[in-house]
Fold this sequence. Notes:
The chain is α/β, with parallel strands linked by helices. Helix content is 36%, strand content 13%.
Amino acid sequence: MKIENKFPGKDISEEDLKTKFPLVAKKNPNHVSKFEIQGVEFGGDLIPIFAGPNMVESKELIFNVAENIKKKGAHFLRGGAFKPLTFPYRSEKYTETREEGIKWLAEAKKEVGIPVITEVMEEKFIPLVSETADIIQIGSRNMQNYPFLTACAKTGKPIMLKRHYGASLRDWLGAAEYILYEGNKKVILCERGVSVPHTHRSTSRFLIDLQVVPAAKEMTHLPIVVDPSHATFWRPWVPSMTLASIASGADGIMLEVHPDPKNSAVDPLQPIDFNEFGELVKKMNLVAIASQNRKVIK
């Protein structure tokens, strides 16, 4: 006797797709969101790259990064001025540059000619960040802060929604629905690692969930980006997991890139340097062509 599976996913039902997140739900196999952000296409042949340091440490550093990553193929400059650091303690090195960091990002964006993605953590800073950011990043810890999602959505700015490390696909898509509900259609989902009992290395906090890429693409029309840097938390694993992310069907890659990784102010175990980034971009393009018939180089 044939048994039909009425549910498209382990935690997502047909009813969810119809009534819980109908705006996020994929209507048919060919339903894919396509849009441009500062001339960079999402959902098409290109697989955009977001690259830069975890923290905007200084004006000199962010200019240096912007110039080098652009030359080597990045489409967006990433950098955190407001950082959700795990613990409340700060030092001269381990801190935030906040409003000054946003100013440096704005200057680098203008002088180097590269669009910017940066995180906002508090509603009061949304106007400030929106002036500079071409994409507003909502970090994993704010993924289910629904009033905050709504406030960010109302800016009309494109939004990258990072998956919380304990969130199911259902949770993640439900959070994205809050943004689309406000009429903001330029939403990018980002996988950045999940919390599991074992991670293969004592310093690795999360495990990259590449299976969520094809799973999400069955359920939603939104583009899916993967952040192998935060997901692995270990530099030697970043290249292989980046290539695996593209092979899994990722629509974009976010990488932590720093001129001197070991002396990065935040998370020094995971950034790659400029040369590593340049070589990785070349390999990413080959995998994109072979696995998706797409490209990472314009």
